[in-house]
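REQUEST FORM: STRUCTURE PREDICTION
Request ID: SP-0412
Submitted by: Lab K.M.
Chain count: 1
Length (residues): 380
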Amino acid sequence: MESFSPTAIIGIVLLIGAAMLWDRSKRGGKSSSIRGVGSSMLQTYTRDLTQDATKGTLDPVIGREEEIERVVHILSRRRKNNPLLLGEPGVGKTAIIEGLARRIHKGYVPNTLKGKRVLALDLTGMISGTKYRGEFEKRMQQLTSEIESMGRQIVLFIDEIHMIEQASGAEGSMNVSDILKPALARGDLQAVGATTWKEYEQFIKPDDALNRRFQPVFVGEPTEEDSFAILRGIKQVYETFHGVEIPDETLRSAITLSQSIKDRFLPDKALDLIDEAAAKVSIEATFSHADLKEQGLTEGQISERIEREKKRLKDVINELEELGEEFPNELEIEKAERALARHLKQLDKTEALATRTETLPKVTTEAIQEVVDQWNKKRS
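STATUS: Completed
RESULT:
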């Protein structure tokens, strides 16, 4: 069988990735933002996690049932019903909110929460676009008013909530937290905050009025066994994405080897090791012709892989066509469509020349160790 250039395939994959990133940035996250509401702040600066749960695009949440249940209890209170997730970076604070969104979507919540929408605030984007004194405060005031007008149907997730206090001090104008406090006290704005212990002690705790309006939910670093259960529950997502097999022993190796990374926490650091190692193994297995020949190939498996790649390419082209209807005069969209169409034809012509292994490549302990070595080398 005649082989085709790995460079050509890499070019196709990169072009697909670039097109998808361009599409997402052009939409401004519109596919996951709140719909059906004519409110510019919500459309621009929030992402609808309940809508993501409906689409099935959220990762599974494993091992955080107790914390999710506590958040549900606090949100269901009559007063002071705003949870504040406190924990180190990477322990899974955002995953808890995604778990809440999944529960609301499935209806596994009290009547007080049924039908509500969990919106994640892009606080960094809201702050970074401001130029003049008071502009950030004005945006936050407008956002709060829009949420209040929706009749308590929104739960606003504010990750890195301490940035509100930081931005207020830097701005030198009205304190942003003073905009939120009345709405939080009345219950017209229901929020879930998330921050680390360090930022909580430095920024949130000194503001006694703001601190009283939130109820702490402690999110600790999971044990190695709990981390293994989390990784085992989510590994299928990464196996499917990278086209690899991740054995259980590799998960345990990732947890053990991640202990050498001192400034990060489980399960996030182990998951990052697995993700990068899986990407490395997938790329090597896909584009190394010599390795593929040694593993053994079948025509049927080759055809299956190419068909999947063609389907992905067609999906991107369809998304670009939809985007072209929204932005009919956008030349970049037309160029991207033509380029992707050419590569789709190229895939049709070179399908018989593709190579693919019968079995999925495995992510091994050695692959994890290589990633750890690279990380530690950069830190030294």
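NOTES: Residues 299-326 form the longest helix (28 residues).
Reviewed by: T.R.
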